[in-house]
């Protein structure tokens, strides 16, 4: 068998193993090890196994991942996020579907301290869904909105996907973060429009509640948002004020969150330890996949299969529009089954050279890619955000119903991707301004 | 058999504690470095090397065994979920056996590398200082070793149907963990 | 025979293009008996190169030995002596070509300990390129020695950290990928980096001042090959690979000079003050170097038990005199290649080298 043949066989085996419920990290490591063995012999296979896991993991820049996770978990467990939703709820009280809109804004706010969309959905799900159910919102609208609003968490900085992308594509993480802000806000806006349209078409989805909220109440509600605002201010102020680097921002942010939670009186030892333990588990689960993907990169490089596939894509897609359409379809398809970080690490070795060769901005592509990967979080059959919400609501709402509730937003997501592709300036303007 | 499970579970608990301490120390160490640098012009020497080579390595590799116990490693269930229960059990045994094989390979490779690094006394340079890093290489064989034991134990209890002594109860927040 | 070469530079960067030239040269010189595939970053990162070539994941690579202090004490001590090129008799735009020649000649023809330590990593030393000299690239002005007090300076290695401590500045460790943002946001005031990285890592977009003449010293870029791979080559092929490696070290060293020149040319239009450091600073730096030369020897003696520090410093000093003379006014990679080949690689005994 030719080297490329070995590489492609390895990829096919990988897909089969993942479908057979082998943990993704194990499948990646196993296929790379076996593949390198067949391709280069046992010595190289053993060498790579000894070398890559340590070298990949012992990365200063990747250390921001556990720290941003920690920041998010602390904020959630000490209820620093609650005030944000409450304020949004009171300010949106008069709007049709006000609570649903509030949960979108609440998610966008939480997104500014949380690095992943799952944490964002979980936190907002537990706060916002009971509230919506109490006000007789249609379960599909209530759950669908929160599931989808969580994806804003990966666009608005900090974002674990963007950090990993920056490391691999070798571009500035600060620039990526700035690019993510507009994409995240645009996404929030798009979702709000979906809620407004749906409620307009069918007012029964979200019964209008008593809208007599006084200005006084509104101001009081705003006051409760200070803990989260303070942390956001600390992080972004410190970043742009030369106090710390993006890598250090997670640790400092987590520290700040601890202080704020101590002040609000919500910090207990058990909450602190729970947050740390969850950070530990999530980091391990994510990085073992990243290690596997890093090994797979070497295997694909040495076999030539990576080159073969990427030049294949380039030759089929002979215009930029076709190429982008192809990339969108590939990620929608992959996103149905894989979780975003694994999907990204798996595909970047093949896709990045293609993007680079076509002369697109790597910064712009990173944001569009994140958006595409996050769509995968809400599409069946594997939609992590949907599953998170399902576990929040228990038997009250079926998984299928949540997927139905999400469908409307999925259409908006496709529109948003088209907009971001048609107007790259939406993403690139902010990073350029800050230069 | 049950007692073996309890024993493995307590090992996982100890590992989890070590990892938790690493998370907390990492936060404090980086914050102290930032404060020292910004306010006192005195960064903590060696922060980057210690964070990357100690906290990161220990927390990831010590925790993969814990994640194995809690079944927190990410996999894709949708294909197997469509199959009958018996077939599903078959797949989970297959996946457990493969986990044991792959992680054993990782453990052997990690052990070999750790021995090499120990013999040479591997160090890293940060600033004008040298920091020994060879010790951290041992986190890989230790952490993967625990993962192998737990995965193997689960395969055995699944096949024999014996009562498992592992603590698999999903923590409330594990859904956040994906 | 098809060999793999792992480059740690990003794809499309100038050094990577030189690696591709090298691969072509290997094929051409050996009449196609040996071919070389270059993998920029996709196969091994710089941090992985040593173990990667040792175990044969790649056959050859640019092995930045400074990343592996315990494995390469001899080579690293020698490259710290690159500070000597800042002394008055050696200083100049082309000093890196002289230092690359001096260190390669010393290691390949005169340094038994160096050969032993490379062999212990299952590798063969095949010459070393050199970056241009390290200069201060700052967002704040530094007009005299006193200005250095308390300035946060990103230091890429031991020499620069030691220098910063001695002159009263604060050495900050930071990965090179973060340095641009660190400078931009003022986390650091200056970076001590070579004049090519000024362009390559985008520092040119944020720094306002660049001071030539301090802290000095150069980063060494040794090239190594897996020992079994090397010895699987015929003597004939080995000789031709050495020819190609003379070209490689010349090209890499020269490409850094060219990038440095490009940065210097662009700087004025970008409002950057690109000048020689103030006379008192240069003077202070030379005094530092003449003392530090002995400090290096004693540091490596204390840490790694090396007894050869003083002797090596003298030898390199002598070789630098020779190479400064040889490379005076050299005009490009081709002329350099000839010098390196005639003076060093052609004198290597292919039958016994790296066995
Ligand atoms: Na976020
Ligand atoms: Na999906």
Write up this protein.
The complex is a heterotrimer of chains A (435), B (178) and C (355). Chain A has 435 residues and is mainly α. Helices cover 79% and strands 0% of the residues of chain A. Chain B has one domain (2-177). Chain B is 70% helix and 4% strand. Chain B has helices spanning 2-40, 47-69, 78-81, 85-120, 139-160; strands at 123-126, 129-132. A two-stranded antiparallel sheet of chain B has the order 1-2. In chain B, strand 1 (123-126) and strand 2 (129-132) form a beta hairpin. The two termini of chain B are 30 Å apart. Chain C has a six-stranded mixed β-sheet. Chain C starts with a strand and ends in a 12-residue tail after the last helix. Chains in contact: A-B, A-C, B-C. Chains A and B meet through helix 1, helix 2, helix 3, helix 4 and helix 7 of A and helix 1, helix 2, helix 3 and helix 4 of B. The complex binds sodium ion (NA) (2 copies). One sodium ion (NA) binds at residues 335-336, 376, 379, 382-383 of chain A.
Task: Give the secondary structure arrangement, pairings included.
The complex is a heterotrimer of chains A (435), B (178) and C (355).
Chain A: H1 3-19, H2 24-40, H3 42-57, H4 64-77, H5 82-91, H6 98-111, H7 117-134, H8 139-149, H9 152-155, H10 160-169, H11 173-201, H12 215-223, H13 226-240, H14 246-264, H15 269-303, H16 305-316, H17 320-337, H18 340-357, H19 362-375, H20 384-393, H21 399-422, H22 425-434
Chain B: H1 2-40, H2 47-69, H3 78-81, H4 85-120, E1 123-126, E2 129-132, H5 139-160
Antiparallel strand pairs in B: 1-2
Helix pairs in contact in B: 1-2, 1-5, 2-5, 4-5
Chain C: E1 2-7, H1 14-29, E2 35-40, H2 46-54, E3 60-62, H3 73-80, H4 95-110, H5 112-120, E4 123-130, E5 134-138, E6 152-154, H6 158-166, E7 170-172, H7 176-185, E8 190-194, H8 197-200, E9 209-215, E10 220-226, H9 227-232, H10 235-266, E11 273-276, H11 279-304, H12 309-326, H13 333-343
Parallel strand pairs in C: 1-2, 1-3, 6-7, 6-8, 9-11
Antiparallel strand pairs in C: 3-10, 4-10, 5-8, 5-9
